[in-house]
Design a protein that fits this description.
This protein is an alpha+beta fold and about 180 residues long. It has a single domain, classed as Gcn5-related N-acetyltransferase (GNAT) (Aminopeptidase). Helices cover about 25% and strands about 35% of the residues. The chain has four helices and eight strands. It has an eight-stranded mixed β-sheet with strand order 1-2-3-4-5-6-8-7. The longest helix is centred in the middle third of the chain and has 15 residues. The radius of gyration is 16 Å and the shape is globular. The structure holds coenzyme A. Coenzyme A binds next to strand 5, helix 3, strand 6 and helix 4.
Length: about 180
């Protein structure tokens, strides 16, 4: 469990928190079986991720389970279950590789417990340690208030919004924010 962090989750902030602690650690290949149901459910909802409905498990696995210089991490509950995951990788190759990109997903039944915040803090700290100079999110759906609030809390700002770049199942064509922070 090299690099694992014990993370306190604060019950008083949520009112309904069951877990007292969790561990964030680098994912292993064995974790994919628990990540896939979370990722595919969130992706299929079509509200927050640029996810093709025809995405196969193999394709999703190749995209999510990153190898160095990319990384994939999981948040693991105190009963051993994976409750969230994130990955990082260079946003562009070569001369653009000093800017990191990251993806995040938290189990829909485990939202608003501080898991996303803990994953975000871990990812930022790791990205700094890996030598990235900045982190950029390319496609934050402008109706995704939970994510936008979380990224602002973590120091990101909206650089630009690509108009009508995302087809939301309920809201129609909405913008995609490019969000950025230096590290
Ligand atoms: C975005 C996401 C990762 C947040 O995970 P989470 O574990 O629920 O977030 P946290 O509990 O750590 O919340 C941290 C902060 O984010 C914001 N936030 C989270 N959920 C929110 C909600 N439903 N409404 C408003 N703000 C919210 C708040 O600022 C919150 O802090 P607070 O509880 O002190 O107000 C999660 O909602 C998710 O997986 N969404 C689907 C996938 C996705 O959007 N990925 C990111 C794409 S850019």
């Amino acid at each position: 469990m090299r690099g694992a962090l014990a993370v306190a989750v604060y019950p008083e902030k949520t009112g309904c928190v069951m877990l007292e602690s969790m561990v964030i650690r680098e994912a292993t290949a064995a974790d994919w079986a628990a990540i896939w149901p979370i990722l595919s459910e969130v992706g299929a909802a079509g509200e927050t991720l640029t996810w093709d409905p025809g995405t196969t498990e193999a394709w999703a696995c190749a995209g999510w389970m990153r190898e160095l210089p990319g990384r994939t991490i999981v948040a693991v509950d105190d009963d051993g279950s994976v409750v969230g995951s994130a990955n990082t990788h260079p946003n562009h190759p070569g001369p653009g590789a000093h800017v990191a990109n990251a993806g995040f997903v938290v189990h829909p039944a485990r939202r608003r417990e501080g898991i996303g915040l803990a994953l975000g803090r871990y990812v930022l700290e790791q990205a700094r340690a890996d030598g990235y100079r900045a982190m950029q999110f390319n496609a934050v759906v402008e109706t995704n208030t939970p994510a936008i609030r979380l990224w602002r809390t973590l120091g990101f700002e909206v650089l630009a919004t690509v108009p009508e770049a995302f087809r939301h199942p309920a809201d129609g064509y909405v913008g995609l924010h490019v969000m950025h922070r230096t590290l």
